[in-house]
Write a structure and sequence with these properties.
186 residues; mainly alpha; 0% strand
Length: 186
Amino acid sequence: MQQVSNNLATEARLSLDNTPLLLSYMREAVKAAMDEHATRDVERLSLQQVVKRHPLFADITPANPPPKTLTLGEAIAAYKSAPERADRSAKTKGAYDFRFALWADLLGSDTPVSSITRNDVKAARDTLLCIPANAVKRWPNQPLAKIAEMAKRQKIAPMHVKSVQLYLDSLVSLLKWLGWDGPHNP
C-alpha cells in the first residue's frame, strides 16, 4: 500500500516528504479503495447484490463511475474542434496547431489538465523565454526543453517577448474555455 500511495502521490504531484500524517491518510484511503474493490468483485462473482461499504465510494457505481480526468491533449483536441472555431482560416488553424503542440510538449500531452499548476506554467514559460525564433525549424523533432538548453549554450537570442505572450494567450484561452477561473497555487 505504501508503494501504491507513493505512486498516486507522484501522479498527483504531491510531495509526501516530511508529511507522515498525509502519507498515513493516503495509505488509509488506498486500503479502503482496495478493500471496497475486492469486496465488490467477490459479490459480483458470487452473483450477490453489490453493497457499498465505505462512504467514500457510496456514489461510485457502474452507472455512475468516477469522473475521467481530461488530459491536456484531449482538451486541446476538443478546443480546436469546437464548433465556434469551425470557420477559422487554414492559417489560424495552423497557428493553433503550432502553439498547442508547443504546450503539449512543454506540459505533457498526457498530463491531466486538473493537475497543471501555476508553477508548471511558470516553468514552461521560462523555457519558452529561452527558445529562439524558428527553433522548431532549426532543430526539428527535438523537445523544447532541449532546444532551450542548446540555445542558451550557443548564446542564441530568444524569440521576442511578444511572441511568448501569444503562446501564453493561447493557453489562457484554452483554460478559460475549459472553465478555468483564474490561477491557483499548487
